[in-house]
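Regression test case RT-17, inverse folding.

Input:
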């Protein structure tokens, strides 16, 4: 269970409350006794390692929450804070309640120690039998009758396994292209993957083929996308235009059409952001008609209606071939030219394990093959997780696997792996399950959310930060294939940029999270609306399909009081909610009524809320919920990606905020009251919008934020510069300057003077409307390029000529973005040799005016560069990359449709370009126009015979 993480969170929260609420001495002593008791229980659970205590752990988790709630309710400051609206009425005094909790805690300590001792004395057979009962418990969703802890353990061994599954059945036979004519007796039987591969490639390569659309159907986790990528690699050289379009679970037609049009390479003067659906369809149709031979892949379409809406934009026929992948066998079963991806055979699973988990024995491998149901995803995750266990008692592992027989091929089998995770990794994995399907989750955001709930265990090493601890968790999860991570290229104190869950892993997290009462998800598009249980502590709400007649249902009013991450309905339930995650999308919001669900229209009853996260909500359609100014215990508030034109002045009441994220949608300019932030003395992380202004003629005041460690988008024109001198704990600073060289001179001077005292880890300087037309501008640019504390430089505007000499080039610069710089001489040698730690380089919109770029193989040139993007350099005709240049490059994007005619690259890089699809496993090579229209040669001047690439 996640019990260790939750108890650690409660322990940390009690410490925080003692300081925050300034508890009286007697109450502080009681709180400390309770904290020590929880700490002892936590240590006992840690020692038990993989052992699970089922209902007992669940009761302990509930108790830890109750203890924190009781301390808050008993504190005099809490009563004073909520004098305008009474807290939950209690029949007994708060002191009596604390004493009862202390007695209950002692009882649980004894019961846990007793259970742990029995487990240690148990032999292998008994442990295997216990694992079997644990597996059976996974399937039970119905409420159990109350029983004592002793009765629970006695009945645990006698409970029968249920066959209930969290997913519906999938048909084993699919209707082939001739079914409608031939009837049911000739339905297509699943074929081997090699046979399917040959059949599909032959069909699509044949210009006279009857079928222009191929449907590939299979259950999630069966390897459809991997199989289709292999098809794509084999087919790509037979087509002129290619596009791979991943379809998000929360299907938005305009988002998909925009993505597809970008892939097809519209003209540079075509602004697609404001196009309506019909305009996008028209441009895509025209772009495809201009090509002689097109191949499109639409990966993971959920519904037939979604496919039909995209199909309107496609001139499907001999000139355009389409591959559609889906898990929805029911909707697509009558389609012609449909192929089924089935599970791997036992031998194929053993071969897969030989590559991914070579220490697994054949006997264990066969057991894995059996319960994985032929899923390569499940087999890989199980194999990696079981390598160490399988090195010991093989039979014990086999017996444990067999105990999951009734969940064969279902996400619940991942319980074998979850049990073996380090205790600190479990809350991290389950927490990710709250996010919508297919969503990339920024690691920095995940870190702040987990920190706000004290779910990151403080590192033992003093030199290690909490963020590094989280990245350690993610690495362990990624090594076990439970989480997919995207490596970061910037030096903002993180090695991972984002992470996501495979759909099947997410299904397990949803199931396990609900089972352990860790969180609940309410999708307002589902039928019937889900009821929220009494002990729910976290709630995520998906508004994307919300209709005005829907609401959230809670089993009792108390439920809302205990929720930690959510949206709620009744008063008493709301009062204990600690964290609320609300997800929406603009496109779906525009099609619905503007009302919020009644449960979250007014937030004043969510008095204990710690986290409130709005993701992608359009507040031009829906007003900001009322009562947010009452959430005085709020620690985390985010409007990331929302449309919000003005920050309500009442937010100044949120004095306990530690993280405020105001990075709204890029097309929004936010108005911020000039003094609203000065009351937030506990602020540690402040993300200002990209575009914003004060509501008065005075500058935005940030005085008093002495705890601030991270400050993003500090605009020199809007904010009071003098406040920066107060931020003695500042570690990460991102600044914006509107072309005024004096502004970034001030920044550089301030950071240089106090860098050692500040321990600044990251500085980003973003300059817009720059014009290097006089000596002062040249001098300022030179000073910037020499600053030893700058990590990221963005310059928009004319440079013309880079400074001739740099006395000591900025050694920490990891990212340079030049936009419209009009540099006359090839800048590559200059940038590559002087900024040897550069990881990302972008030249955009005539940043270079010359006709040729040469990237040499000098020993120091771009040795750490990972991403190179050349965008709309209209005079560029030739690009030459020498052998040995950019050895770490993983992303090369050349978008230069009008002029680029020659591309000379090293053979190794050329081979990778031929192989890469565009989003393939961390390697991106994308060239526009299509290489078919370029004269591509390798470094030894052997002409390329490559076929077309996507354009």
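Golden output:
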């Amino acid at each position: 269970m996640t019990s260790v993480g939750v108890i650690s969170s409660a322990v940390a929260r009690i410490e925080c409350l003692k300081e925050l609420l300034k508890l009286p001495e007697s109450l502080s002593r009681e709180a400390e006794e309770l904290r020590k008791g929880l700490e002892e229980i936590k240590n006992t659970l840690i020692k038990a390692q993989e052992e699970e205590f089922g209902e007992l752990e669940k009761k302990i988790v509930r108790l830890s929450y109750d203890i924190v709630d009781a301390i808050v309710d008993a504190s005099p400051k809490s009563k004073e804070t909520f004098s305008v609206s009474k807290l939950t009425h209690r029949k007994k005094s708060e002191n009596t309640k604390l004493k009862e909790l202390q007695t209950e805690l002692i009882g649980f300590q004894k019961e846990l120690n007793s259970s742990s001792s029995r487990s240690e004395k148990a032999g292998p057979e008994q442990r295997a039998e216990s694992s079997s009962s644990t597996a059976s418990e996974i399937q039970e969703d119905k409420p159990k009758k109350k029983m004592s802890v002793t009765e629970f353990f006695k009945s645990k061994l006698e409970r029968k396994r249920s066959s209930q599954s969290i997913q519906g059945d999938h048909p084993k036979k699919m209707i082939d292209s001739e079914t409608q004519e031939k009837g049911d007796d000739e339905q297509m039987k699943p074929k081997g993957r090699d046979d399917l591969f040959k059949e599909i490639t032959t069909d699509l390569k044949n210009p006279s083929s009857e079928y222009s659309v191929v449907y590939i159907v299979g259950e999630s986790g069966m390897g459809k996308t991997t199989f289709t990528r292999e098809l794509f690699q084999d087919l790509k050289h037979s087509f002129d235009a290619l596009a791979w379009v991943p379809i998000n679970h929360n299907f938005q037609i305009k988002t998909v059409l925009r993505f597809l049009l970008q892939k097809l390479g519209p003209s540079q003067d075509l602004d697609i952001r404001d196009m309506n659906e019909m305009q996008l369809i028209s441009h895509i149709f025209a772009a495809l008609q201009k090509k002689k031979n097109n191949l499109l892949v639409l990966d993971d379409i959920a519904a037939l209606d979604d496919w039909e809406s995209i199909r309107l934009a496609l001139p499907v026929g001999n000139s355009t071939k389409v591959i559609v992948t889906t898990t929805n066998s029911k909707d697509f079963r009558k389609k012609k030219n449909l192929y089924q991806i089935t599970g791997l055979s036992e031998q194929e699973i053993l071969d897969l394990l030989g590559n991914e988990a070579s220490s697994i024995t054949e006997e264990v491998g066969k057991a894995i093959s059996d319960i994985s149901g032929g899923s390569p995803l499940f087999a890989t995750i199980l194999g990696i997780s079981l390598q160490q266990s399988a090195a010991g008692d093989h039979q014990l592992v086999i017996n444990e696997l067999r105990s999951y027989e009734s969940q064969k091929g279902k996400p619940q089998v991942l319980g074998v792996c979850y049990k073996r995770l380090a205790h600190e990794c479990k809350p991290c994995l389950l927490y990710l399950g709250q996010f919508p399907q297919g969503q990339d989750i920024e690691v920095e955001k995940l870190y702040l959310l987990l920190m706000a709930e004290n779910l990151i265990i403080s590192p033992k090493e003093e030199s290690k930060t909490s963020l590094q601890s989280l990245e350690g968790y993610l690495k362990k999860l990624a090594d076990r294939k439970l989480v997919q991570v995207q490596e970061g290229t910037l030096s903002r104190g993180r090695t991972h940029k984002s992470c996501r869950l495979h759909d099947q892993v997410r299904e397990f997290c949803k199931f396990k999270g609900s089972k352990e009462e860790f969180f609940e998800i309410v999708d307002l598009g589902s039928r019937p609306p889900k009821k929220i249980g009494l002990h729910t502590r976290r709630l995520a709400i998906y508004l994307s399909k919300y209709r005005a007649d829907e609401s959230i249902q809670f089993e009792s009013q108390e439920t809302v009081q205990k929720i930690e991450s959510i949206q709620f309905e009744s008063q008493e339930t709301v009062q204990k909610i600690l964290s609320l995650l609300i997800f929406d999308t603009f496109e779906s919001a525009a099609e619905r009524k503007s009302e919020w669900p009644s449960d979250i229209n007014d937030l004043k009853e969510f008095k204990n809320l710690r986290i409130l996260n709005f993701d992608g909500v359009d507040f031009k359609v829906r007003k900001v919920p009322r009562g947010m100014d009452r959430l005085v215990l709020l620690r985390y508030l985010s409007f990331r990606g929302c449309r919000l034109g003005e920050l309500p002045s009442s937010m100044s009441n949120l004095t306990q905020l530690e993280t405020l994220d105001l990075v709204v949608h890029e097309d929004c300019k936010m108005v911020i009251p000039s003094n609203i932030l000065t009351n937030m003395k506990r602020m540690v992380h402040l993300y200002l919008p990209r575009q914003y202004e004060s509501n008065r003629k005075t500058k935005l005041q940030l005085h008093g934020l002495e705890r601030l460690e991270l400050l993003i988008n500090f605009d020199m024109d809007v904010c009071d510069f003098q406040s920066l001198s107060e931020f003695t704990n500042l570690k990460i600073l991102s600044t914006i300057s509107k072309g005024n060289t004096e502004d970034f001179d001030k920044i550089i001077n301030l950071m240089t003077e106090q860098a050692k005292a500040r321990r600044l880890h990251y500085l980003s300087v973003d300059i817009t409307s720059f014009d290097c037309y006089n000596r002062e501008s040249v001098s300022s640019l030179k000073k910037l390029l020499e600053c030893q504390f700058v990590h990221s430089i963005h310059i928009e505007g004319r440079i013309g000529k880079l400074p001739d000499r740099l006395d000591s080039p900025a050694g920490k610069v990891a990212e340079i973005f030049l936009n419209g710089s009009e540099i006359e001489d090839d800048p590559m040698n200059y940038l590559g040799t002087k900024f040897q730690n550069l990881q990302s380089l972008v030249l955009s919109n005539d940043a270079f005016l010359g006709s040729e770029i040469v990237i040499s193989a000098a020993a120091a040139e771009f040795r750490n560069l990972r991403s190179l993007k050349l965008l709309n350099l209209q005079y560029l005709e030739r690009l030459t990359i020498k052998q040995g240049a950019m050895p770490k490059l993983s992303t090369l994007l050349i978008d230069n449709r009008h002029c680029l005619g020659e591309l000379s690259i090293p053979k190794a890089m050329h081979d990778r370009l031929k192989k890469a699809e565009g989003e393939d496993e961390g390697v991106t090579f994308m060239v526009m126009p299509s290489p078919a229209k370029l004269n591509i040669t390798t470094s030894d001047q052997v002409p390329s015979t490559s076929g077309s690439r996507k354009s």
